Amino acid sequence: MTTKPYFLCFFTVLIILMSLPAQSREEKENMIILTSLSEKPLQIILKGFKSKNPDINIKIIYRRSQASIKLLRQDYINNICLVISSSPFLMNQLIESNSLATLPLSISPPTWISKHSLVDTQKVAIIGYSNTVLLWNSDYLTRNNLPIPHNWQDLTNAIYFHHLTMTTPTRSGTTQIMIESILQHYGWQKGWRLILNMGANLATISSRSFSVSESISRGQIGLGAVIESYAVNLNDIPFLDSSALNNVALMPLYIGIIKKQQQNELALKFIKYILSNNVQSNLIQTPFAKHSVNKALPLHQKNLFLDKDLLISREFIINRLFDLAISEQLPQLQDAWLNIITAQKKYKHSARHLKKIQQAKHQLFTLPITEQEVQEESTYYQNSQQMNPQKIGRILQWKNLLSKQIQDSNNIISQLSKKNDAHEINQK
Question: How far is CA 68 from each of CA 24, 37, 75, 85, rounded to the nearest angstrom?
Answer without folding.
Answer: 33, 11, 13, 10
